[in-house]
Structures are given as C-alpha cells and as structure tokens.
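Lab notebook, bench 4. Still working through the backlog of constructs that have no structural model yet. Next entry is a single chain of 198 residues. Request: give me the structure tokens for it.
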Amino acid sequence: MRSTVGTNTAVTTAILCAAAVAGCAGGGGAGAGRAASEAPAGAATGSASAPASPSAPTGAGRSAAPAVEVGRVSVATTTLGPVLVNGKGRTLYLFEADGKNVSTCTGTCAKTWPPFIVTEEPKTGTGGVERRLLSTLTRGDGKKQVTYNGHPLYTYSGDSKAGQTNGQGHTDFDAHWYILTPDGAKNSTPQPNSGDYY
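Model written out:
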C-alpha cells in the first residue's frame, strides 16, 4: 500500500514538473519567437535602408546633373591657322548676322550651331587668349553665352572632333560663319576644298 502511494506520488510529481517545464519552455519559446520574428524584420529594414540611403542620393545626383560645357577658351592650331576653341577642343565660330554682344541664332539655327553656353564666368586657356576680350551675354532663354571681342561664340554640329573647321565660310541662316583669331577678328581664310562656300 505504501509502495503504491509512493509510486503515485512520484508519478504525480514527475507529471507536474514536466508540465511546469513545458509551460516555462513554451512561454520562453513564445517570447523568443516574438523577439526572433521582430528582430529579423527590424534588422532587415535597417540593412535594406542603410545601403540605400547613401546610394540613392548619389544616383539621383548623377542623373540630375546637367551636362555642363567646360567654360574655357583656348587657341589651337588648325589648317586655317590659330583658332579659338572651347574646353573640349571644338572650334568656335562667329555669326555675321549677330550684333555686338547680341545673339540672333535661335531655334533651328541654335541646333545646327550650338551656342557656347556656360554656367559661370568663362576662363582663359592656353595659346594666347586675351582675357579682356572674353565675356558673356544673356540669351532670350536666360542662359549665358560666351562672347569674344563682342562676338557671340558657337560650335558647329558638323564638326565631329577637335581640330575640325567644317563650318568655316558656311552661309547657313543667311549670313556667314567664320572662325576667330586670338585677337578677336574673323578669319575668312577659305576652307580647303570648300566648294560652294565662297
């Protein structure tokens, strides 16, 4: 009889302990489960936003940055002699229809003969550019165009690389286009094999 009671007591005690352990483990498991489920979510959010934060503005900055012409005027030697060129080495031209510090080339003209636009004051480069002759004018659209000795400056869409002077002597838009000398005068030397330009 004692042995049966002792056995029952031992079994009951074992069951209660097992239940208590299971309850404790379950409670801890639930808390741990919640903590685990919340921690990765927070960690994922943090890890996703951390790299995105620095890279997003950089990417946005790159795509939003306008292509700015190098605002430097230099002198280069070509087959027509020394000519003014922009910071990319492209030949600069004057348009005889323009007035002093006044550009008349707009619309289609400006697509064929892009005005030399800058966002800050132009700078003198190499080859003997005279700083006193270098300035800007404000176009009708508010953009700044570089001038030299009062001549608004343009590049030519027909020049595909530095050193070319394919626009020399053209009469597009009812007036002549010429390269400029370092002293700010037009150079009317004919383009070699220029055909109908003269």
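Notes after review: The mean pLDDT is 76. The first helix runs from residue 2 to 64. Flag for follow-up if needed.
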